[in-house]
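Backbone shape codes
____________________
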Amino acid sequence: MASISYLWRRGARYHYRRRLYLRKIVNRPITVPLATADPAEARRLATRLSAKWEVLTMQMFDRAGCGFLKAGELESVFRAGLDEELGLAMASRLDGGMAAGLDRRPLRVLEATYRIAACLPADADSAPSDLIDELTDGFSAQDRAAVVLMLRSLAPHRSARQDAEHLLHQLSAPVTKRTIGDARVQLLLARAEAQARATFAGHPLVVRQGDPFAALLDDVVVAAIRRGSAGHQTPADLGSAVDGDPYAAPASSLFLMPDTRRFSEIIEPTIASIRGSGDWNADMEQRRRVIHGFAWISGDKRLCDYGPADAQLFAETLRNLPVDFRWGTATEGAMSRPLADVLAEVKAMPAKTPRSDRTFNRDLTIMARFSRELAKTAWRPKFGKDLIVDFNAFTTSIKAIPGETDRMPWTEEQLVCAFSSPIYTGGGACKRRLKNDPNATVWQDAAYWVPLLLAYTFMSREEACGLECVEVIFDVSTPFLLVKANMTKSKDGVTAAGLKRPSRYRVIPLHPELLRLGFEDYVAAIEAEGHKMLFPELYRGDLAKRGGVRFYATCGRYLLDHVDRITPLLRTASGKRADLHSMRTAGGSALEDSRAKQIHVDDIMGHARKGTGPRNYSKAWFAKGGAAILEKRLALMCEATPNVTAHLARAPLALLPLEERSRTGSSVGCASRKKS
């Protein structure tokens, strides 16, 4: 029988012997006895078995190559796990007799343990404390400790992997690393659901069924119990039962673990989690407004009730809100009123300026990061890894229009006009600084120095207003100031803040004009008063608005009005006039029209370097020394920047009382906001 393939003779009998060549499967010979000693019969049987073998092999190859489980297969895994675990959960009740009461605490502890395990990787050594806190909300300290102990001793997230693999073999489902992982999660969720259903064993709807196991395995009965259905209804009527429990989880959800908490309840914990990862800094006012705005627009629903349509609704609503729309809070303003009423008022407005694409994308990006954080727990998808509430899908591409800009710079003439105002040449005291006065005095404070710093150092308004005295260094060959995070700009009083991004940390040489006008004397006087911050009047503890916002409200806007009245400021195509930040734009424009290389411009302006060479290999600060680099930067800045204060004489140092500093009032011919 040597010419007959796969036939093997052992004694007087023939056997069919063949190997299965498949990756990750041991290819030991498989022997099938043919129960015959007749060579002709053995040949016939071998031919038929070979044909059947090829068919089965192709089917096996197809199944092994499938990298996912079908919905029906996942349901089978869930049902198998639910059936097995429900029997274990009910065992204690059966041991004590059906009339005995069921202790719900162990069931609750096991349910939480399994749900936490479903969120953990199979090889995790421990569970995050925030995840444990979230899924044991309302637990006593003893019950929470029991959950932690169960996770450590039993480690169900590990042991479930072997059970899932065994179950997939029983179901003839694809067995791969991916499918085993999906089945493991499904099995853990099934066990958690079984423990939750066991608590319903004494419910009238279960008792009326006669067989408690059949009733607890019936999804319709369980859904009716969770909806708070009346006990006298029959199973046929359960599908039409009305919702009675606002905190009951929905029968079907897009999320892995339906969470019935309201969106507003998880805002602060989620923000803290994002900040803990290092993504967001302490400046959270704008981000909180956006997140609370989404809660208001979406109706502050239960987390399990959200879906893709909510992200779309948020994007469409943002498009309909004008750029000057004021959100308010949950207790006052727009967000304290029904959304429909506010939108009706906005629609009735005669003329409104729409939001820019950049502002629109900014708000969606904030919510996209928030959604990604929730996708780790409450918004974790039941199937796949794509976000359910995807805000990035609605962002718009920003196309630059040649010849148009979103911010105009100051011209040299306008800067000279600003530094020729009574603030610099001599005016009245508090609230009369922009008006001529018989006893004209040049008072020095933020109203005097911040515009000079903006014009000669190209800092932003918040950076200049938030400087501390120790960040200004004079006793070196090239005096400089340091832009860094500090406690003056801290939002919580604990963490230093003030850098928009890491690249904003920089060293800026002081322009000779700042030194000529007496900046060193001013810094020394503020230190002598015992202040750490350079402009303490902007950060008094009794102020509602602090820092740059305070500066703009008390003097910055009046300086803009003064210049705009004499030498009209440049305006964009949409009519937006140049503002205080436009002085930084003017500085960048001056550097553009100089011999400074782009890497020098980036370092002075605080922009991130671009390219492998500038980022990784340009280390002149360390190779040549900081003094040489500062000297070069100062030369570039002096060459590029026009001298807009040459007409000013150095004024003797004069300081107003702290509560009166940097309050200029309006100039002649410009009404204050209060009067207007």
